[in-house]
């Protein structure tokens, strides 16, 4: 079995900085102190795969930051990573390899490049989530889950199936608008347990009253404690609730409401400064991603492990409308910090607000 390994070293760099993606901004992100995300997550995946494997797997990779730097076992070198990488580099790697499966680390942009370079070749792919946004169904839920999928595929326990590759309108995204379309289809090992599935946009006009009621609930908490700091996560559900309270928020950013003032689109450092200087109670509102169930780790990388620890995991409140709850029986966590993930998973359940003073508990996925 031959597995071709490729990393987009620039993917995910802008997450903690609050960038709406890292395309074309890698140099700026690194200058601002951003650290590699995709490479270390590929390394985590491959280390777990090495523990799982009880028969040889041939890994094909370029030396350097697009592959070899993140592989701690023997691999077959098929070239060298360019000093400056781009979408062209990823496409060149895909076009010049004919493995049994491609294992890649990046985000939706990387997936698009791979699909374009495959040009109809029916070689399955598995994505290690390493970008800011991952809406496509070819991504595993976590780096370790990607290793589980690869190993199950190697031993013949998984069949391949078509899945959707989702594409965002990048110009609209940079303006804070979420517009998604299906870019194409690709083959990937079918595993409902380990693969995340494609993101769905779930919204119903009839839910306006529910959103207003949930906003009133948050408003009552603020009235009861005027010093309460509310951290607003990203997404349309929370953005609409904020409007019902008379405030504007960023659709794709992380905002803080405190003492009647909204601090908008904060990056990791901005969040830490405000949270660490606050001595009162804090409430973090998060809405799970439709179709995937991710509460942490998709599109909200500003909420880094350091930020989440500063807030406190007991101060997280999920927000979910009835339409979203219909397709949601558990939530997923992928903070990028295994110890923190395990701490949250150990709670087994988290609370979700679904109406005025109406909450339910939902299971935290343990995989």
Task: Describe, in plain words, how this protein is organized in 3D.
By secondary structure, the protein is an alpha/beta fold. The protein folds into two domains: about 1-190, Probable inorganic polyphosphate/atp-NAD kinase, domain 1 (Rossmann fold); about 205-365. The chain contains twelve helices and 16 strands. The strands form three sheets. Strands 10-9-8-11-13-15-16-14-12 form a nine-stranded mixed beta sheet. A five-stranded parallel beta sheet has the order 3-2-1-4-5, with helices on both faces. Mean pLDDT is about 85; it is low at about 200-205.
The amount of beta strand, in percent, is 15-25%
Number of strand segments: 16
| CATH level-two architecture of the largest domain | 3-Layer(aba) Sandwich
Strand order of the largest sheet: 10-9-8-11-13-15-16-14-12
Report the sheet with the most strands, covering strand number, pairing sense and barrel closure: 9 strands, mixed
Bulk shape: globular
Query: Radius of gyration from the CA trace?
Result: 20 Å
CATH class of the largest domain: Alpha Beta
Stated plainly, the CATH topology of the largest domain is called Rossmann fold
CATH superfamily of the largest domain: Probable inorganic polyphosphate/atp-NAD kinase, domain 1
Secondary structure class reads: alpha/beta
Task: Determine the fraction of residues in helical runs and give it as a percent range.
Answer: 25-40%
Question: What's the average pLDDT?
Answer: 87
Order of helices and strands: EHHEEHEHEHEHEHEHEEHEEHEHEHEE
